[in-house]
């Protein structure tokens, strides 16, 4: 990996066979969609060679070609894709977008949901205007890239949010403000997933009457041990 990869942060990797099986069961448990259907979503993404090629070309033509790999590995985006396909959300928020790989996978899931008759949109947020470059025009029908603070966005947002990814910062005050702003915007079926398992996440779940579980990734052929993702959800979700 040291000689082949250009990545310095937000590492990408495929899930191992066990990691994929765990993700499928985890998403099934949280969304109450049968495992066989979740496995079908995983298979459709694995078979989408055209998406991998498109993402690889985007990287090759971007200023990030020296810090991003052209061999596309979905990493945490695989988990997010499964959730979006299973949940069929109308509104998704990704707070913290980086290159935009996860946002692309969320958007790809939304496009497949749209083809099945469920319209949804992802708001990809970041404070830096050089982020989210991977999205491009391909996902213009389901993705909106916004720059600015996630707390300000949530406070101003007038709709209800069905699925939100918190991937900005684990700084306690920012987390506290973000979760406070989110509380009134959660739809009855909303799922919140974070890249940090913190006391603020636990308190947010408790205040909103939700349960939480912790998912641990199992990467394949990578030195990185994988991320830990807490997920908050309503136990009596409609």
Structure in words:
The structure is a single chain. This protein is of the alpha/beta class and 238 residues long. Helices cover 39% and strands 18% of the residues. Helix 7 (172-183) links the parallel strand 4 and strand 5 (186-194). The radius of gyration is 17 Å and the shape is globular. The mean pLDDT is 91.
SSE blueprint:
Elements: H1 17-31, H2 35-46, H3 49-60, H4 76-87, E1 91-95, H5 101-115, E2 121-126, E3 143-147, H6 150-156, E4 161-166, H7 172-183, E5 186-194, H8 199-207, E6 211-216, E7 228-233
Parallel strand pairs: 1-2, 1-4, 2-3, 4-5
Antiparallel strand pairs: 5-7, 6-7
Helix pairs in contact: 1-2, 1-4, 2-4, 4-5, 6-7
In short:
By secondary structure, the chain is α/β, with parallel strands linked by helices. The protein is built from eight helices and seven strands.
> How large is the radius of gyration?
17 Å
Cα end-to-end separation: 44 Å
The order of strands across the largest sheet is 3-2-1-4-5-7-6
Structural class: alpha/beta
Shape: globular
What is the N-to-C succession of helices and strands? Answer: HHHHEHEEHEHEHEE
Strand tally is 7
Mean pLDDT: 91
The main sheet comes to: 7 strands, mixed
Strand proportion, as a percent range, falls in 15-25%
> How many DSSP helices?
8
Spans of at least 5 consecutive residues with low confidence:
none
Summarize the amount of helix as a percent range.
Answer: 25-40%
